[in-house]
Amino acid sequence: MHTEHIDFFDPAKIADSGQAFRIHTIDDAHTELVAFGKYLQIASLGNNDFAFSCTEKEFKDIWFDYFDLGTDYVSVVKSIDKDDDFLNAAVSFGGGIRILKQDVFEAIISYIISQRRSIPSITTCVDRLSALAGTKIKPTKPEAPFVKPLKNEYYAFPSVKQTSKLTAEELNSIGAGYRTAYIMSAVKDFESGKLVPEQMKKLDDDKLYEALTAMHGVGVKVANCAMLFGFHRTGRFPIDVWIKRIEDRYYNGHFEAERYPETAGILQQFMFYYIRKGIT
């Protein structure tokens, strides 16, 4: 177990913010997730103190970056236009949400799967894919302050090699539908070396966007989601039906994301969470 005092961090809100599909709340004080082939449970201890079901080394090597704990979100919030009532309300409601730094391959495949789906449907499909081809993970027996996980066993998101072994019929069996062809094409791009995550991370935003939209079945929204959640390009501003609704209702059809060139993606998450959870 490892404990940390972390300001501006709310695992439950992050789990419910729609940016990742393998992080879930267990109860009011506990959140669990699977990422980078590992199971992690977080216990909220109060007063911004948290316990992580991992060693200090694992926390520093994996989870510190995964939860973007090196970014000063308080400064991001302070940069918001004080006259923007909706955005300030969204940030107040969503305080504690951080942008996860997800595995590149998992983020791209997950957002290919996400096309024209609800979050529960995406989650189901991603979980089925992981169970079909991923490596089994068995959480250790929980000891206080942790609680029993939601499941007895979990599966890591499959690697490129593991996913490449799946047939179209197997992908259809998890509910991928027309996205099956897109997934298979993406896997071939990674397997062949056409796409190499470490090389892609070095590209500037324009070149990265160009590489992503050149993929079969990857359009503007999926590319921007992959850039924000897989490559941590926090200036990207994905627009889906929820964000479009916000733009139409509160910004005369267009939110000026260009006013926040480095942080628009962070603000987008507050807006997305608020319109779904905070406004009746």
Topology, element by element:
Layout (H helix, E strand, L loop, with lengths): L1 E4 L5 H5 L7 E5 L2 E6 L2 E9 L2 E4 L3 H11 L6 H6 L6 H9 L10 H10 L5 H15 L2 E2 L16 E2 L4 H5 L3 H6 L5 H13 L5 H4 L4 H9 L6 H11 L10 H10 L13 H14 L3
Antiparallel strand pairs: 1-5, 2-3, 3-4, 4-5, 6-7
Helix pairs in contact: 4-14, 5-9, 5-12, 11-12
Question: If you had to describe this structure to a student in words, what would you say it looks like?
Answer:
The protein has a single domain (2-69, 98-230), classed as Hypothetical protein, domain 2 (Endonuclease III, domain 1), CATH 1.10.340. With 280 residues, it is α+β, with helices and mostly antiparallel strands. The chain is 46% helix and 11% strand. The strands form two sheets. It has a five-stranded antiparallel β-sheet. It has a two-stranded antiparallel sheet with strand order 6-7. It has helices spanning 11-15, 56-66, 73-78, 85-93, 104-113, 119-133, 160-164, 168-173, 179-191, 197-200, 205-213, 220-230, 241-250, 264-277; strands spanning 2-5, 23-27, 30-35, 38-46, 49-52, 136-137, 154-155. The protein starts with a strand and ends with a helix. The chain has 14 helices and seven strands. The longest helix is centred in the middle third of the chain and has 15 residues, at 119-133. A hairpin with a 2-residue loop joins strand 3 (30-35) and strand 4.
